[in-house]
Amino acid sequence: MTKALSETRLEQIAQANIIGTHAYQILIAQGKAASEPGKPPRKADLSCYEPGPLSEADLRVLVAHQAALLASDTVEIDKWVHGKPSSFDAAKDLKPLLDAPLELSDRLPVNVFVAHLKRSAKTLQCNVLSVANLYQTCLEMERDGDVLWDEMHFYRSLGYATYVGQFGLPGADEDFLKVANGLAPRTCDSPFADNPAEPFAWLICARKIWNWGEKWSHFRDQYTMAAELLRDPEIRVLIPRIRALPAGKIAVIGHSFTMHSHWSSPSSFAATVKAVFDMENSNVVIRQWHGGGLTAARAYKNFYQDALAWKPDSVLFAVAMRNDQDLADLKTMCQGFAAAGAKVFTFDNLRDPSEDSVRNQMSDKVAAETGMTVIEIGRLIHDAPDKDKFLCLDKIHMTEPYHRLLAKEWLKFLTAARQAKL
């Protein structure tokens, strides 16, 4: 097996994923995608999303081939790539994708980005295609947490590049915006929530892929954040206290601000503190229950019984409070955990209090009626000197400096270096 043939096979695999993703995006343009049943077609330049001779059923077959390819054993694929005996059958899912009679316009986002990387990066064509495919899927937004991650982990396991930092290209938002301004005018209207014919779609996609690429390759994740935190003078002095904490189980029930997997930061404050204990005191175990936009009512419905059965020693709530039902369900959970012997905590606010005064009122009300402890953090968020760097591009979620602040304050509280009230 020659090196050239191995590289060709790697290119074929990435190109097959591009075709499979494009087939699904044609279904989006037609209003027939699985993720949007019954919704009308989104605005799109149909000359770029033309199915050619393929029917809806044909397109769905291609999507199924891509799913099967991504689910294939990468050990066997790697053997096939390098010409070794392998159980991977290229004729089963790879060849049907490569042979699909689809014409991919040069104005499609994926091809616009391929052309950009060919001009800007010195790397193998297979790496250009893998990163372009990740951008192609990420621009959809709807499949961020499933198909996109399947693609990323698939590519990682086979040695492909997964983000442009691996090409030596810069990764600041300003750099991404400069590229976005050049790409958007070349791109056709596409049936996504953010249209890549506008620079913002490219900008936020670039940030997502960069952060996830660093996170899942472990170049920058909860453990790198934890290691840096343990070198910070404010936390370094707490190491003896961290090591001296008795064995215990801490449950974290929260929304996206607690999720390690979110794109806005290398990790969340909750996962970073968990990593600190993994590194310094494994007798303290943190387990998370989380969901995007998690309200107290959803937490009660989806996670409460499971978390209660785990028998935690303490519970940290970071849930959205929007109505009376949330208030009632948070009270029920607090009382239930307290009756089981757990201490219950929440932060007074996870945003600048001036932006979310209702949260303070609800937390105080629950605390007064259940004994839940409210850890004051909102004032520190408001007064932080780097506060202007907290909000990420979507103006909802938070970046690494924010999560570092919360991780510090929670560690201080857990080690009794600070009280609940400042």
Commentary on this structure:
The chain has 422 residues and is an alpha/beta fold. The chain folds into 2 domains: 3-216, Dehydroquinate synthase-like - alpha domain (Dehydroquinate synthase-like, alpha domain, Up-down Bundle); 222-414, SGNH hydrolase (Rossmann fold, 3-Layer(aba) Sandwich), CATH 3.40.50.1110. Helices cover 51% and strands 6% of the residues. It has helices spanning 3-29, 56-70, 74-81, 94-98, 109-120, 125-138, 147-157, 173-183, 199-216, 222-231, 233-236, 239-244, 269-280, 296-302, 304-309, 324-339, 357-370, 378-383, 400-414, and strands spanning 248-254, 284-290, 314-318, 343-347, 373-375. Helix 5 (109-120) packs antiparallel against helix 6 (125-138) and helix 6 (125-138) runs antiparallel to helix 7 (147-157). The chain is elongated and about 65 Å long.
Defining key terms:
19 helices, 422 residues, 2 domains, 51% helix, Dehydroquinate synthase-like, alpha domain, alpha/beta, 5 strands, Rossmann fold
Number of helical segments?
Answer: 19
Low-confidence stretches: none
User: Measured on Cα atoms, how large is the radius of gyration?
Assistant: 24 Å
Kindly state the percentage of residues in helix. Answer: 40-55%
Q: Which percent band covers the strand fraction?
A: 5-15%
> In oligomeric terms, what are we looking at?
single chain
Q: What is the domain total for the residues? A: 2
Shape call = elongated
| DSSP E strands, number | 5
Describe the strand arrangement of the main beta sheet, using strand numbers: 2-1-3-4-5
> N-to-C SSE series?
HHHHHHHHHHHHEHEHHEHEHEHH
Please name the CATH architecture of the largest domain: Up-down Bundle
Distance between the termini: 66 Å
- Pairing-aware structural class of the strands and helices? alpha/beta
Q: How many strands, which pairing sense, and closed or not: the largest β-sheet?
A: 5 strands, parallel
Mean pLDDT reading: 93
The CATH class name of the largest domain reads: Mainly Alpha
* CATH topological fold name of the largest domain: Dehydroquinate synthase-like, alpha domain
For CATH, the homologous superfamily of the largest domain is named as: Dehydroquinate synthase-like - alpha domain
